[in-house]
Design goal:
With 152 residues, the protein is an alpha+beta fold. It has helices spanning 4-11, 24-34, 53-63, 88-98, 117-140; strands spanning 17-18, 38-43, 46-52, 102-107, 110-116. The relative contact order is 0.17.
Amino acid sequence: MLKVSEILRVKGHTLYTASPDMPVSQAVQTMSEQDIGSLVIMEFGTLTGMLTFREIIRHMHAHGAAGETTIRSIMDDAPVSVSPNTSADEVQRLMLEKHARYIPVMDGPTLMGVISFYDMAQAIVAAQQFENNMLKAYIRDWPTESAEPAKS
């Protein structure tokens, strides 16, 4: 069964964080430059929230430009998180149930990374391709019975 720790290992350990007091405009710039859809919000070494394009778009729809707004005022301050031992099936369920495209991975109080909807799709496709290849190899090596009965 595929685990979150395996997905993070393949994905890599690059992680983008921001402070809750950073202006939203600066967060948008970082997200655009790095081509990412979320920032992990950290304060005093602790996860305090997530900022995704969803929160930014909601804010801009309600208030127009980001202006001097800080991340703290629009971030999700209670993001659902998973552990490295969480199964990929459980992550899928949580993402669908909570409408979460990005989920922080926590090992106790330590932030290990973020799993995105894209990461999940990529991992599932890779696992299916591996299984498909294994089944094809198994079928090719299928033992055949001899046409002649064995002689004693």
